[in-house]
Amino acid sequence: MDYHHSLNLIKESQFLISMTPVRGILEIGFSSGMNRSSTVLDLCCGYGEMLKIWHDAFGIRGIGVDICGEFIRQGQKRLAEYGITDVTLIESDIFQWDTEEKFDYVCLSGEEFGGLENTILLLERFMKPAGKQIIGTRYSKCDNPPQELIDFEGELLSLKQINDLFARNGYFITAMYSDTHNEWERYIMWSARRHLEELRKDTKNMSQWEWCRKWYDMYFGFRRPLEGYATFVVEKV
Ligand SMILES: C[S@@+](CC[C@H](N)C(=O)[O-])C[C@H]1O[C@@H](n2cnc3c(N)ncnc32)[C@H](O)[C@@H]1O
Fold first, then answer.
1. For the chain, how many structural domains are there in total?
2. Which residue puts its alpha carbon closest to atom 1 of ligand 1?
3. Residue 196 lies in a domain
């Protein structure tokens, strides 16, 4: 077994904060036709790892925006280590940030601002007329998700409802990559380790204790059996 290769993939995936693995991100880029002339905007980019992968594999030029200074600084450090200058990461609230540039691909993965329809409209502001949207979003595996899950997650549409919503907005899904338990385990435990680090700084913080417990309860009780995650590429005719 080439475990060095496997370890590199694991290390790389530690910089992804949502449930699409490195292979899925590659497949999305390939199927949607990314190439050296493509420009990509990634809103809520985390460490900017998706842009780094698409740059490495297809030569895209990219801009990533995220509100979290820690993620942006680590991402910038990583890009510098790899000598990548065609990807720029910017620390900002996406609602405070703006640009005149329009992009071939506009992406938002792993964050929701008032539902999927709002995401589509937000991304359209930055998209070239024939551009493509890349949206990573949670979905419900059942028709009527329990209230506990809705209270925790907000809107949780089924795949059919997601497709209907894209269609109502004039979009066709042209590439898609959905999750496995493995990606959820990576994300849930990455987040759990960060929550526990916070708790260790102040072990008397009762709301942090509660949050740590709730994180596991929600995952094993509701999210694992009932929730999925998929990344979609959508485009108009
Ligand atoms: C679940 S992570 C997904 C990160 C990345 N898209 C990925 O797939 O690896 C959600 C990201 O949204 C960022 N975020 C949340 N609200 C934001 C806002 N208003 N403006 C910019 N970034 C925001 C968080 O800091 C976090 O990095």
1. 1
2. 110
3. no
Quickly list H helices, the chain: 3-13, 22-31, 49-58, 69-81, 116-124, 147-153, 159-168, 181-201, 206-218, 224-226
Residues at CB less than 6 angstroms from ligand 1: 16-18, 44-46, 49, 65-68, 71, 93-95, 109-111, 136
3 CA distance to ligand 1 middle (Å): 31
> Is position 203 within any domain?
no
Question: Cα(45) to centroid of ligand 1, in Å?
Answer: 6
Q: What is the pTM of this model?
A: 0.93
Phi then psi dihedrals of residue 224, to 5 deg: -60, -50
Structural domain including 53 reads: 3-180+227-235
Q: Is residue 126 part of a domain?
A: yes
Q: What is the DSSP letter of 93?
A: -
**Which CATH number characterizes residue 69's domain?**
3.40.50.150
Give the number of other Cβ atoms within 10 Å of residue 93's Cβ.
Answer: 10
Rounded CA-CA distance 56/84 in Å is: 9
Whether 26 maps to a domain, the answer reads yes
pLDDT tens, position by position, 33-62: 999 999 999 999 999 999 999 999 999 999
Q: What angle do CA 116, 32, 182 make, to 5 degrees?
A: 65
Q: At residue 190, does pLDDT exceed 90?
A: yes
What's the pLDDT at 47?
A: 97
State yes or no: pLDDT of 1 exceeds 80: no
Q: What is the C-alpha to C-alpha distance for residues 98 and 105, in angstroms, rounded to an integer?
A: 16
